[in-house]
Amino acid sequence: MTDILVVKPLLDSVEVALDSAFTVHKLYEADDEGALLTKVGPKIKGVATSGHCPQALINKLPKLEIISSFGVGYDAIDTQDCRARGITVTNTPDVLNDAMAELTLGLMIALCRKLPQADAFVRAGRWASGNFPLTGELTGKTLGIVGLGRIGKEIARRAQVFKMQVVYHGRTRQAHEPYPYYASLTEMAAAVDWLVSIVPGGASTHHLINREVLDALGPDGMLVNVGRGSTVDEAALLHALKERKIAGAALDVFEDEPAVPAALFALDTVVLSPHQGSATTRTRWMMGDLVVRNLKAHFAGHPPLTPVV
Ligand code: A2R
Predict the structure, then answer these.
(1) Fewer C-beta within 10 Å: the chain N or C terminus?
(2) What pLDDT sits at residue 56?
(3) What is the pLDDT of residues 228-279, one digit of tens each?
């Protein structure tokens, strides 16, 4: 059987499926990772991982043919280097679109209807002394989607069910999409009530949402980030929130996860979530299944199902 390396623990369903098809070596279970790699590295042909595969590790796997990654983002894998070495890289797109879009709308409702505060209000027994203050709502508002990709389109569909107008920004206009396009992110930010970021990480999106964009979003504007923490300049965001230059933010991703700036905890204009966009039982199962099917397809001599390289 083909030797594969599992870098970090994956779902039980994935490990069972991998065990039945491959000779599996678990890096995370090794007392001495270096010793394990010296012993099995030369025969490893496949890697199963979740978003990361450092160069130092790849260097120790001379026969590596494929990295099958759990998750849609692959910004922490050097795909250029893999391409140069002839290593296939796969991810798990599409199967997580619904869960991602669902969490996005959930965060938006939580932020504008102040659901965390309302919950705390009831639990603290404060309702008997008076009603919870009135809140905003999504209905009739304009949503600017930064990154109208697979997930962005599902967010757009759901936002319309909530009677929002949808516009978008990306590097290119998508001629077949019905939504107004903004070539300038700052101009879009100035025109919308909500800004949702769902672009990949990496150099081209690093701090795309910066002080200028937040200033343009303005004191009634809300920011939601469900893509990558690196896309938002967190220091600029903290400043904008503290100075009430924007109205609020809902964040599922952060610059230095799992570290979250403590200054955010003091603000009641934020809703915080621990990078759980795709973290449902159903979706994670489908993602894991795709990790396995990509490996099986490759080693059966077929093209992988969802290659990025
Ligand atoms: O720029 P375009 O027209 O290629 O549109 C893509 C957009 N995008 C960008 N927009 C502005 N500036 C950039 N530098 C930039 N780079 C990419 O992001 C496209 O509309 C969207 C990404 O869509 P997909 O490739 O279909 O990705 P998907 O599956 O929606 O996932 C997005 C990200 C993942 O990479 C993870 O980081 C996260 O969501 O979970």
Answers:
(1) N
(2) 95
(3) 999 999 999 999 999 999 999 999 999 999 999 999 999 999 999 999 999 9
| DSSP states of 48-108 | EESS---HHHHTT-TT--EEEESSS--TTS-HHHHHHHT-EEE---STTHHHHHHHHHHHH
C-beta 198 within 6 A of ligand 1: yes
Annotated active-site residue 52? The verdict is no
Catalytic residue from among 158, 228, 284, 298: 228
Tell which residue, 83, 74, 81, has the closest CA to residue 57: 81
Residue 262 exposure: Cα atoms within 13 Å on the Cβ side: 0
Calpha distance 79→8 (Å, rounded) = 19
Q: Sign of the C-alpha dihedral, residues 213, 215, 221, 223?
A: positive
**Probe ligand 1: pick from 69, 199, 213, 283, max atoms within 8 Å of CB?**
199
What is residue 45's predicted lDDT score, i.e. its pLDDT?
Answer: 98
> Is the shortest distance between the CB of 205 and ligand 1 below 6 Å?
yes
d(CA 284, CA 288) in angstroms, rounded, equals 6
